[in-house]
Amino acid sequence: MLTISGSATRERPTGNTPDKYHAPQDGENPESGLMNPLVSGPPAFMSPGNGRTYYLGTSSNWSFARRVLSMVHEHVHKATLPTEALVFEGTAYDLGWDGSRIDPSPESPVIPTLDHAIFLINAVRFRCGHLYHLFDDSDFMVSLYTFYSEGQRARPRGLWYIHFLIILAFGKMFTQVKYLKGKPAGISLFVKALQILPDHTLLYSSPMVSTEILCCIAIFYQSLDCRTASHNYVGQAMRMAMAHGMHTFMSVTDLGRDNVERCRKIWWTVYILDRHMTSIQGLPQSVDDRFIQAKLPSPEGSENIKSLDMHIKLCRSIADINATVYATDGRLNRTFLLNIKGALSNLAGLADELNKSFPLQLEATDSGLSRVSAYLHLFYQQCVIVATRPLLFCFLKIRLESAETCVQSLQKSPNVRNLIKICLDSAQHSIRILHDLASQGLLETFLTFDLESLFISTVVLLMAPTIDRQLIANDTWWHATADLIFNDMVEAGNQIARFRHSEIQQLDERLNLLMPRQDQNGQSNSEVPLHFNTKLPFPSHEAHTATPIDGNSCSDPFLGGDTTPAAGCAFEPSLTSSEMMTMANSIELFDAEWVSTMMDNHAIW
């Protein structure tokens, strides 16, 4: 049996942290008798048949989709899901290197001219600079000009050169969309940097630049769908930063302002990557926030620092969701509904600040979207989805046992139904943001955060009509829009999007078999596909060209006429802080007891 897990609320640190943090409510009643795990059992694993086994992490988006697909497939076909039709991490791209360093290193990659290198570096600044600190601008550029002023043979080959190769690799990935034989642009630069990366004994001699390099490698690997390698490099960066004391209150007087400011930027980048990637892996957090005393970089109040502060708060929210709604032992316990209440209360404290400081003008026709604002809003909606989607899994399992029981159960608890609606509303909000980004040519097709949002949103939106047709209106519009965004990413050369889209189509096909068709008298007479499920051919690797989705292109053949976002989906803004808090406070002990009984009756998890 595939499993999700839960645990008690973790203590929230106090003291010197960026801005104040909204601690989740305890949500525990010691007299409720809800503390024991619902069911015991081993954690879940899946093997592609090549001898390697993959752990399905508790809060992992990839694992959640696999669990849903496996459960539905087993119900429909009365057989275990074959892994031959699935794609596992590390297979999306051909790196042209097996990771071994015993063979002689290949020839040095082609180094671009100075003006081309500056162009690539500027692309990295634009695409990553507002979210992560990847290099110190002044030191890096001084070394750049020194590098190009030297003769070919006299050029340095130290840590800066490794850093330089990785930044160039990022730049090529951001600016070139042509793929050759399955290899992304810039991959030779990245592989060369990995091959000449020295041992940690040398890296520790230059902790600042080494930590920056490790962060770059982690992000690049994540973008290649090498999640385990990425998580490992983030862990190395975290330990190197902590060994250098970057997590502490570093004294400007003793260490110098420039060094302290750089260390603060490095630390919070490491922290963000660690929290985010650990959640994506569905693993427990490795560092307790109580031991973190680092301040935010200066100047406080600037736009970059405001976005960094919000980014940190969202990372803490996703970490708390991972530690409360999900547990570390592969099981979901009876307190998870109250933990969802605590998670939503925490997120409610961020909603108004997010909307005020980083507004999204989705309805505006004369102003463009802020890429940073869009990212933060997508991250916020992802937190909501991850916190609430276990309920969809529970009711999907009930639906597979009995459609009538599922509908009746939802009608008995309006509060639980509203929680499911919150999950679906966040998914719709995410799809709408991604649609508008695509229409303005701002869709991120290399870094993974847009794809993650699209993937997790589409999965829950596919599940909803199977549970209850009344949960979501115009579901065909959302499915068609998601299909177009997936194809926009695939056409840009994103092989991971290609594979995720394939899994979405497999899930859609199986869920469609559960949907009854209505005859002319309104009676259900057979089980046939319902959703928009046209399989679009995947382009080849060669000569991909990203084409932004036109603002009016998301027309749904099932709806006809004007099916733009305003007409086709009746889109509404995200919930305010007060609305989210009201929703969280509506969850009572009765609801938790009721859900626990339902889960017991249906042997869920």
Extract low-pLDDT stretches: 1-17, 20-42, 517-572
Estimated structural class: mainly alpha
- Largest sheet features: 2 strands, antiparallel
State the order of secondary-structure elements, H for helix, E for strand: EEHHHHHHHHHHHHHHHHHHEEHHH
End-to-end separation: 7 Å
The percent range for helix content is 40-55%
pLDDT averaged over residues: 78
Q: Which descriptor suits the 3D outline?
A: globular
Side-by-side strand order of the widest sheet: 1-2
Number of helical elements: 21
Proportion of residues in extended strands = under 5%
How many strands in all? 4
| Rg, Cα atoms, Å | 24 Å
Please give the domain count: 2
Detailed description of the structure:
The chain has 605 residues and is mainly alpha-helical. The chain has two domains: 33-92 and 327-514 and 574-604, no CATH class; 97-224 and 226-316, no CATH class. It is built from 21 helices and four strands. Strands 1-2 form a two-stranded antiparallel sheet. Helix 8 packs antiparallel against helix 10. It is globular and about 75 Å long. The model is unreliable at 1-17, 20-42 and 517-572 (pLDDT under 50).
